[in-house]
Amino acid sequence: MFNFSLSNYAPSMALVMTLIASFAALGPVPAQPTPALIEDWRASDFNYASSMMDTDQSDHVVVLGDTATSRNLIIKKFDAAGALLWQTPYDAVEALSGVWIAVDGNGNAVVQANTIRISTGQPTGWLTLKYDADGTLLWANSRPGVVSGSVRVEVDANDNIYVAGFALNDSVLIKYSPTGATLWTAVFDNNGAIDAPSSMAISPDGSRIAVAGVSGNLFMALMYDANGNRLWANTNSAVYAAGDAAFGPGNISYFAAGAYFPQDPNPYQMAIVKFDAAGNQLWIKSYSVGDRTMRVALDAQGNIVATGVDSIGYMDWMTIKTDANGNLLWSQRYDGGRNNDETPSMLAVDASGAVYVTGKGGPNPGSGNLSYVKGVAVKYNPDGTPQWAVWDDYAGGKAIRLGAANTLATLGWNYLVTTHYTQTSLPDLLPNPPTNLSGFASNTGSGYEVRLNFSDNANNEFWVEAERCAGSGCTDFTTVAQSRGENVTALTDTTVAQGVAYTYRVRARGFMGLSGPSNTATIIIPGVICPDFNHDGVVDAADLSAIASLWGQPAPAGYDLDGDGSVTIADIQMAAARWGASCP
After folding, report:
1. Are residues 470 and 446 part of one domain?
2. Which pairs count as long-range contacts for 139-145, CB under 8 Å and 24+ apart, including other chains?
3. Are the beta carbons of 413 and 375 closer than 8 angstroms?
4. Which of 11, 137, 303, 347 is deepest in the core (most CB within 10 A)?
5. pLDDT > 70 in the chain, percent
6. Per-residue pLDDT tens for 113-132?
7. For residue range 525-542, what is the model confidence (pLDDT) as tens digits?
8. Distance CA 118, CA 313 (A)
């Protein structure tokens, strides 16, 4: 380790104020309306990509961003009302990529970044910065390395700083004092395997530091005491890489992972591994509702909450809650779009046990760039029932932090967009039902399809579904078509049979479920018509001549083969397609 000279990198106050005047962008740019949330303020800086956010004891919000062009960092601090208190860039000689930010008990911000090789983005070392509550840089420590990088920084109750990362093939954990002195460095090498952390957690009493990650291709759980002694290590080959760790009472620890059961109909499964304080593995529990667990946390009652992914074509979020023994209490899928992977990034649990998840997801657009994703934040009540969801092109998706007085802050999944909300305690609403449904049977040349048109009245839908039943006045509706995304006014049913009457209705699906149905529309599909117009028992030249003579005219009974009301080239082509057919 060596110390950077602060004089080389600390910005002048004039520069800070100039940047504040240039880039501060406050003001509401609301996402889809919901009675459950009030957007208090939003600060957008599209010059920077988002890295991470944290909050202090006064609900001030501190965010970290970086830029792909100049490869420098930006750190900003907002008060609870959204006023920009300060912002400061950090522009080193090396290219930098922001990793994490953590705020200590005095409001000081600890920033973690990696130095990177611009051509490949590969990390070549890490950098730890500490700023005081007013944005003054206190110290900067670096750890260079050809293949070396960091993944997380955390601060304990005494303001000591822990950084988890890797160097070559080894997992590395470093502890700094509040003044930046290196207290110890712990290295884990599992017999030459590539050992890399993905997350870290500090126990509530500060006596344990858990590191979750991968060793080779499989699970890695490491436990250290506050003096850097490795208490135990587990590299269980029965589970996949650990994505996160959390502590329970008595320094019991839980690690998020994945399992594989090749003979199971759902071979890839979410998994949680539980250890006692001595490192004895108490159990591994797997859950077939999802493929992999990415984040884990505990509520005040000791229940386990986890979120991860489940793949049905594209990936969806899957959030679960279990009791302390790993028995599944509930699971909830977030599937807002069918055209791209949806992945959660952060999980939080409030004092009541309500669960908050943020990440990337749908709804996708109904047309155009169908794979476009948004930033999403959702809330589930302690019993797993959905409470609200909010999505936005720019806000949310990277991080979520809970504040006082029923507030929360989110960080945009792509750009440095910070958004602050107040919860109203009201639930979200079902989408408004579509109206003005109508439709018609259209001939495709090889059969018929039904084209439905309607008015879309919802601004909180994922997609629109068409339902049908056979006959007029029927009630046994089943889903037969679904839009690719939100804000659509037309659907097509391609699975109809000729000579059948169908009754249709459409409904909008959102986070809270399906809307009420639209009005119904009954569509009669024309039957199979044999174009033997002269009734000689076979379709021949005389029949084609007969229908061709009516080209462009209103169709007499039996001559309108495609059901559009007049004789067109389509009718003639359909007659020609039956040439030589015998007709009863």
Report:
1. yes
2. 139/3, 139/6, 139/179, 139/180, 140/3, 140/4, 140/6, 140/9, 140/180, 141/1, 141/2, 141/3, 141/4, 141/176, 141/180, 141/182, 142/1, 142/2, 142/4, 142/115, 143/1, 143/167, 143/174, 144/115
3. yes
4. 347
5. 92
6. 999 887 777 888 999 999 99
7. 887 667 777 778 788 888
8. 34
